[in-house]
Amino acid sequence: MPSTGRCQHWLFTADLGFSTDLNVGGCVHDGFMTGIRDTLHEVRSRLLDALSFDAPTGWADDELLANAGALEALGRVVDAHRVAVAGEIAERSRIELGDQRLSTRKGCRSAVELLERVTQVSGFEARRRITLGAATRVRDEFAGEPGEARFPATAAALASGDVGADAAAAIIRELDRTRPYADPARLAAAEQALVDEATGSGDLAPVRCTADELRIQAQAWATFLDPDGVEPNDERAMRRRGFRIGRSARDGLIPVTGELMPEVAAKLTRLFDAHLSPRVGGGFQTDEDRALAAESGEDRTPDQQRHDVLAAIIDTAARSGEHPTIGGAAPTVLVSVRASDLAADRGVAHADGIDTPISLRAARHMICTGGTQTITFDDDGRIIELGSLERCFTAHQRRAITLRDGGCIIPGCTIPAAWTEIHHVTAHTDGGPTHPDNGVLLCWFHHRTIDTSGWLIRMIRGVPHVRPPRWLDPGGTWRPSTKSPTRLADQHERPPTAHAA
């Protein structure tokens, strides 16, 4: 979008124990900004000179809190302009502009990528700013006159620095869902009421709400504006359905968010119930259930068990051969790790599609399940040797092992054979062959923790034997283990002396 040639005047004020009062004017002509960038650099420089990073350690309690509020007030002003800039970048990168999109002309796929590269913020933060910018940006009308922002009260409070970006996001996120159904007058009243609560203005809001408190209030308003929102609505549910996998790890875990259609949630819940009930969740457990749970040493929470069931479902789907291929092959996660790190048990591995490194323990788990391929580089990074794929159990071998084991061989585990992985009892690195006599069925959880859980597995003439952890069985008794109904029937029909042997 070409520039209108209008002038912009920005005011920055801060009270951080020193005096800064700047009235800055800068003009925008033909998309070229003069003066504003230099002034922003000057403000940044003066702030760095006036306030050292470790200054808070020398402040008194009241001074510390006062300056925290003053810094936040300054940050709100900066955030407001960050949002405005993001919204304008998105506006000039609209899809309908084609090759004239700003993002395209700068060699980026989207406004989000362009903002990421210019600011070095995360994709999540770039999308948040663009969403806020679009909702609070003055819209261009057909007659050429500026129109009203989609959320004018929030836009005004954000621009004045009275409301922060997180509070504005809480208002917009909740109320925007009701826009297609809510009465416009009621929607405007709800927005103004929430802005009043965020700014501490009005008789009903003597104290400013935090962003989290505001989110709760906004959810209450959304329910009031769209009372039918709690009723089943297939069209609305189809629009809102979604599943998102986060990119950044939190304490080593990737967050997952989303909303499932009711029938999809029902199917997933039934799968969980089939493999987690009745041993988890308490209530009506039989003596046999309790004995099996005690025998298996189960100490996972229900949430952890649901995670592990989901992991098994994903592995089963990937093996099924019923999904689209990628590059002519079944969907396969590539994990790269240096051989020297594996040998020294030091470092991390990397899985394609996820930015967060994975542990060497996780890498060994995936190697045991999916095989390895050795790639040798020279000092300059050139590939000089490409080994063949090793250590993958074939479909025929899996069927044979499944008939023998019948499911995860850890006593008390209810995960069926179709959802299990094949574990090399003697690791390939230790000379263990990829042969049914060296492979056993383990569920995702027991395979992932086999080196640390205390469970031990050995093969005796091709038959799996397990020994529980010492705290479960101080005597350390080895027992043959199978879930195969035919093998169990054979065991029951054997004479007692033969069975004991």
UniProtKB/TrEMBL annotation:
Domain HNH nuclease, first and last residues per copy = 396-448
Which Gene3D superfamilies does the entry mention?
1.10.30.50
Q: Where is the composition biased (Basic and acidic residues)?
A: 489-501
Q: Where is this region: Disordered?
A: 469-501
**SMART domains reported for this sequence:** HNHc
Q: Name one Pfam family in it.
A: DUF222
Kindly list any coiled-coil regions of this protein: none
Q: Which InterPro entries match?
A: DUF222 (IPR003870), HNH_nuc (IPR003615)
Q: What is this protein called in UniProt? A: DUF222 domain-containing protein
